[in-house]
Structure formats: structure tokens, C-alpha cells
Amino acid sequence: SQGGTAIGPNLSGPAVFVDNTFDYDDSVMINKGRHSIALGGNFKRYQMNHLNEPWVYGGTFTWDSIENFLTNNPRNTTQLLGSTTPGSQKADVYRGWRQSYGAVYIQDDFKARSNLTVNLGLRWEGIRSPREVNGKLAVLKDIYRDKNFVLLSKNDPFFGINDGFKGFSPRVGFAWTPLPDQKTVLRSGFGIFKEMPLAYIWQLALEAPPYSKRYTVNRPQLKFPFPFADPDSLTSTGEPLMLPLQVTTPYTLQWTLSLERQIGQTLVVKANYVGTRGVNLFAIYNPNQKPTIIRDGRQFTPPNAQVPNPNYTSFRYVAPISNQIYNALQLVVERRSRAGLAFNASYTWARNIDNGGGAGIKGAEQIAGAASFAVYNGKDLSSERGLSSLHVKHNFILGYSYELPFGPGRHWGNQSTGPVKYVLGGWAINGTNTIRSGLPINIQMTPRQSGCVAQSCPERPDLRPGGNNNPVLDHWTPERYFDPSNFVLQPTGYFGNVGRNTLMRPGQVNVNLSFTKENRLAEGKNLEFRAELFNFPNHPNFGAPANSVFRDADGNLDPNVGRITSTATPMRQIQFGLKLVF
Question: How many Cα neighbours within 13 Å face the side chain of 556?
């Protein structure tokens, strides 16, 4: 419940990972005239033995109020069950993954002129579909018709991999110093970078029948506590977590333009433009969504609509269907160490947009947890286009280091000896200051007006005419962060017209300091003392507000809407340390 806490062990464990990576790399450098050519390649063999048991022992129970908790009336219960071990309903979540990866490359750094270097490169890389060493994998051949999963053998690939570029990734760039003083540099580059489907995506197959099935029962008749249920006796088929039989390789197009100027002997200023275009990124959606029609110019689910595959209510389908675009201006001022002072100050003004690439950024544990779906309406991905969950519009970071001018080798007390030398000498102050704007989150609600049948739906409401989709109060408090009156409950069957990730969370201000002192004990021996202060001013950085606006189909407001009950960063922490170097 909003504002509540969890009792019991973390759902991401117990987990055991025994991973082996066999890596062979080789490279050759050839310098000939104005060419500097690099040739190389590498091969990797992955052995990933995972015992990941979230949800297996007992599942979870969720209550939506203190009253319901005290009267033993849970809102829902979730269990991960299996049916492959005779006499047991416990899920089988042990997997021994095997996968191979290889790449070769060539790059030529060509000195076209004395002040101009051109970089040309080409990379080829390929990856084999993963296998499970004991054959404990299952796939659904036709997600729109089939009921039974087909068991694979240890030699069967989990999925096919399609690469639109046939494995090739070109790179090009240049560096130009246009002025005679050689203190101004203009750089630019472009490249294609593959995002190979590795374990963080395909290990989600842990939740596929018959080895494991996740069941969520709302307002269960069985009260807490109760034993494992028999998965074969449940009327629900659960909600399998799957990947397509054919996966298109995700990739990014990356480009940069940078202007750098050195001022004096120690100061450097930079202005950078950075862009990234992500294609075929992994997102989660439900292909078993009820069919929709257009009514009154909007997506509408008819009341008599049925799911395409009647054998399942819904799927959690991890597929490369998402795209992303990122653009940023970066300004940097850097001072190299002089008179004991060095710092680096950077400011980034950015915009990050996607249409639901949550699987690539949240990781397997979050995907398998409550944030099951990154896509609200899988029938209309254009309606999912909005700020990425990683969007940070403004980000300022200042890092610095200052050696206090006392003691041997410093401005004052260079010749000091005895106690004065040990008390005053060797001190330094280091710090990092961060100021950044908040991350975006969805405006959501509990009633399923759109006809969503998935176990977890990011249902969004309508925006009131003339309303603000980011209605953060000018003088907000943790008790009321935004004004929910800007939103209304849409009619039954319609998808809400509020965009994705429109509400901005509170920003963050953080100051970390450290004081260090080096003491030379003898030749080749030093004792370093450190005092580190995290969140030095003890500034509260508040977390996300409760973002569920309506609690029922009558349009009643959720009593917790707009309330912030947690912080995004810890309170002040101080730690001390000693390090002996010899």
C-alpha cells in the first residue's frame, strides 16, 4: 500500500550466480606513413548458472489499508508455481545458460593534414542464441492460438536473432585544430553500436510454463497464511513472461559534435552536442490485448471484445518494439591541478524520449516485479511516446579537490618538522556537488476503464479540458505534491489521453565531502586517514509521490494521491577509514 512497508525477505533473493566468462582478445597495430591502423577481435564464451528464487517461497501478500491488514483481507496475493517436479508445486528456477559472442574490427586513424585527423572504422560482431545446458526451456509457438508450451532440448536455441546490418557497424570521426596556437579543437563522430540480447533480457524466461507460472489473485478467498496452491487446479493460466521466437538485434546510432578550448595553462572549456537514436529496444507489452476500434477519434475497447488467445488472459511479452531519441547540450569547465586546486564543472541540458523501452533500462528484477508493463496500449505505440523514465532535463555536477597549503611540499610549513609536520601536513578536501531535475513518472489510476486484462496495468486517466498534465504545486509539501483535479475519469472502454511520464518528480541536491590526510611513516610506507560525509547538509531529497489518482470506477480520489512518503537519497552519513600503503 502507499506509504506502507514490506515485511519479510527481499523478493530479489535468495539468488546464487555462478558465472564464468572465457575471453580471448588479440590486436595488431600498424603504423605506416600517415596511417595508424588497428586490427583486432575477441571471442567470449558465457557460462551463467543462475539460481534466482524471487517469489518461490511463499509469494507476496499486499494490503491496501491498515484496516484490511488488521482484518486479514489482502488486496491480492502473488505466487510463482510450477508443475515439473512430481509431488511439488514449487517453481523450477535454476538455469545453466550458455552463449557465445565474437567480434572483429579494423580502424584507420588517418593524418589527412597536420591539423586534421580522420577516423574510419568498421566492426563486425555476432552472438549466438542462448541455450540451457539441461534443456529447461519452453516456448509458445503461436501466442495467438496455442495453449501448451513446447519443451526445448539442450541443443535448441531459445530464439532466433535477426540483424538488419548483417553484423556490421561503421564508425567515422575527425579531430581538427583550426588555429595556429593548437589550443582549439573541433571533434565530431558517428557510429552504430549493437545492443546484444544478453542475460538481462533473456533470463526472464524463468517465468514460463511449465517450469514456473506466476499467479496473482485479487481479493483472494484464501487468507494469509496459506500453503502453496496446486497450479493444475487453478482456473487461471497465469501470466507467462516470454520473448519472441525471433528477436531483432537492438542498436543505437550515436553522434557527437564537440568544441574545446584551452585557456592558459590549466583551464579547459568544452561545449558538446550529443545525440543517440535507439532502435528495436526491448519493451514489455501484452499481445493478448483485446482488439480496439476508433470511436469519437479515440482508441476504444468494445464491451464484447475477447482476447485473441482464449487460453490465456494476458502475456508479459518482452520484445524489441521500442524506439528512443536523446539529445543533449553539455558544457564543461575543467581546471587541471595547480597550486593544489583542481575541479571539473559540467552542466547538461537534455531531452530523452521513447515509447516504452522499459525492459532495457529497468533490468530483469524490476520487469518481473510490480512494474510489469512499460506499454499501456500495445495497439497504438504512438500513444506511448513520451519522456523516457531516465529523462533528466537539467543536471549540474561539480567535482573538486584542494590540497591545503600546509606542511612539507606545500606553500606554508614546507620545512616543518616534528608534531607540527604530522598535525598540519598532508590534508586535502574533496567534494562532489550535484543539482539535477527530477525523473518523470506516470499519472495512473486503479479502475481499468480501457478494458486492460493484464495483471498489472499502467492505466492512465483523461486530462481535464484546460488542465495541466504536470500539475506540481508551486508551494508543494510532502502531504500534497500535485493537484489531482486536473484529471478526470474517462468513460468505460476508452484509453486515457494523459501522456506517458508527464509528472515530474522532485529534483535532487546533494553535497558529498571528504577530508583526507596522508602521513608518511617511512620509506615506501604511508598511512592515509579519510573522513567522508555523504549528504553533508542533511538535505532531504524527496522521492516519488503517490501517482494513482482514482481508486474506483466512480471517480473517487485515492486518499494517498500526491503524498510523498519516502526520500530518494539517504540522510547524512559519516564514515572514517584508515589505509596503510606499503
Answer: 6
